[in-house]
Description:
The chain has helices at about 5-15, 45-50, 60-70, 85-95, 110-125, 140-145, 180-190, 220-230, 280-285, 300-315, 320-340, 370-380, 405-424; strands at about 25-30, 35, 40-45, 100-105, 130-135, 165-170, 200-205, 235-240, 260-265, 275-280, 345-350, 355-360, 365, 385, 385-390, 395-400.
Amino acid sequence: MSNAELNELKQKYVAAGAASPATAFADRAENAEIWDADGNRFIDFAGGIGVLNVGHRHPKVVAAVKAQLDKLMHTCQTVMPYEGYVKVAEKLSHLVPVRGHAKVMLANSGAEALENAVKIARAATGRSNVICFDGGYHGRTFYTMAMNGKVAPYQSDFGPMPGTVFRAPYPVPYHGVSEDEAIRGLKMTLKTDANPKDTAAIVLEPVLGEGGFYPASKSFLEKIREICDEHGMLMIIDEVQSGFGRTGKMFAIEHSGVEPDIMTMAKSMADGMPISAVVGTDKVMDASGPNSLGGTYTGSPTACAAALAVMEVFAEENILEKSRALGEKLAARFGEWQTKFDCIDNVRNMGAMAAFELVSNKTDRTPNPELAAALCKKAREEGLILLSCGMYGNTIRFLMPVTIEDSVLNEGLDIIESCLESLI
């Protein structure tokens, strides 16, 4: 079917809140390129929102899924377990830098992982409260909606949010929130809203995702660890977007050396197959009773096969080094743009998790979300899929596959430069 025909069906049958505004429908893809239903080619700088760090349809992942389909598609692992689930758990327990011996539960999505992380933290501590941060994004299920540090569009239309979720400032010095102010705000939250003796966990992203690609400093993460230890609270690190090689290490928290109690991950864990994980210290993970964790499709055989293949790809193709190299290339180009364009400021990257701000005034750092929206729209018209994000909607983020070919990368970056020249 053509794009036009598919758009007619979308308008008629897909709920408005779930319908994409895009009018081109993906038909096939390879590494960092997508072709739509009409045969038009797009360069993919979004990666399915950080899901495709090893590229669309990596051959090793495709082969692993096909082989699994010939053996077993589903039993529900709580009914009859299978090798893939326990092998993924074994691999993750050795990869994830939590305190002590790690244990694992698998789920289907990042939001589901965060929901279960909170359940586990409550069971382990006997407490109810959770503290999250401004700008954080943790999912679209009801409790994770409450955890999100941005109202629109995630909470706006859905009535009162669940209670026992409290907020603290996230340090973004560029926008006037220093690390000291963020810590002072967190301590005030513990004093005025969330009594430490009733607080199960502090949950944060080591690099904000939807909130703008702002990394937390090593010292800030160390202070969060200290505060959790002081009050007997658990430290939960959300690596759904920053994990699996995006930042030049397998997980962003590794840059700090801090060991959390629980970590969540999803997205690039299985190169497009739906899977997520909660990994934590064994005593914490074993706190809840029998059959208290899980779900019908959690850790499906096909998704586990894909995840195991992804971990092999990381080892065989040196994906972490490629992420660091890609980050250096992006940083160099961003630096050129920051000098060339008055609208570009605060260029930044941690490995290939890279972004810059679009502003109308560099002196005042005035966000320009209208230009960000116009750039993404213009880029799409020129065959490049590009995403904005951030509390102010003015950040341009880069989530192309780490495996992108240099020629395709440079072609996409040239499109951005051309679009900026035409827009300003």
